[in-house]
Amino acid sequence: MTTTILRAEHVLDGLGNAPRSDTVVALEGERISYVGHRAALSNGTDTPELTELSFPGCTIMPGLIDPHVHLIFSASMDPWGDMGRENDAQLMLRAAKNAAALLRAGVTTVRDCGARNNTIFDFRGAVEMGLAPSPRLLVAGRPVTRTGGHLRQFGGCADGPDEIRKAIRGLFDQGADFIKVPATAGFGSRHLDAYTSAYTDEELSAAVDECHKLGRKITVHVTGTVGALQAVRCGVDSIEHLPMMPSPNRWEFNDELAREVRDRGIYVSATIAAGYRAQQYIDAGNWAVPRPGRLGLAERIENMKKLYEAGVQLVTGTDSGARMTAFEESVALEMETMVGIGMPTLEAISAGTSRAAVAVEMDDKVGSVEVGKYADLLIVRGNPAEDISAVRNVVAVFKGGEQVHGSQIARPVAVGVGA
Q: Are 383 and 10 in contact (CB under 8 A)?
């Protein structure tokens, strides 16, 4: 088997360690086979044919992970309106477009947190057939929501413990990897507010129990503090958003809630990228459809900061596809925000790689530059450990050992030749 050697100025393992120099990464098939000094690969005996790809002035790091995307969304100023005008076949084509954009940005694993009908299952099937390039996909399918609740347009309404259990069983039978439940309403929900619980304790506990009984994870959409407290009590595995709002337009950080989230090891995607550019657009004096009750960007970032200071495990879920939340930049934007609130740069990189891999239960396969892991790698110009924005400077992307984006400088290397 041919060994491909990747050489760059630095290697970042994604585990929080400082970048290594004088280090190469070797790939055999889909996996990383070696990380270390180049000379050790040139022993003149059992080394197979070598091909070297050189990336001067660059850093090799793990492919990025986004634990919260919606591939069928348009990331326009009105993604819900766009979805309403598109049929399921068109939504699948949009998913293909967005998946390709994620790969170009160096995102090699995503968790899709909700799509209409069977679109995301069908799209994943197309990816598995080789019909469309895509990051590795973990999918929830239709979110399980109460009648009239948030994300009801996706077609997953269920009421009462028995209906909820049946819906979850059906989703897993279709191939869902995890379950998404809106534990509160959203800002666009009719006849419901986003600050109280959407389900009763009995209903949400049934959802959690059914997932865990089947050995699967459950994540919940949360905006209101009351709903967040309920979700934590019921034993959810991760939380999306968590802005701690006791009432409309009011932010009040709840220390007790933050401690409970931390102590139970619940991962949180603060999704600051969601609507970040839309808020800038509005602040510049442009008109947009109002989103009543939603927190301002500064308060959302302060909420993220306090979650971090409380010891909550933050990961880089972005809600890509939401209002002006572009697939091309959202993970980078989330990382930049993390560094902006005081998170060390190496930890922010881990939040988007190895820690995110743990959150989505893929840490045995991806998330770090280690021997035996899938060769899902991002190569960027510059050094993200010194400037996190360097993750935007994508030079090349590998998924499963195959280069799926970018440029390269390749030269064959003879067996036994040191460097």
A: yes
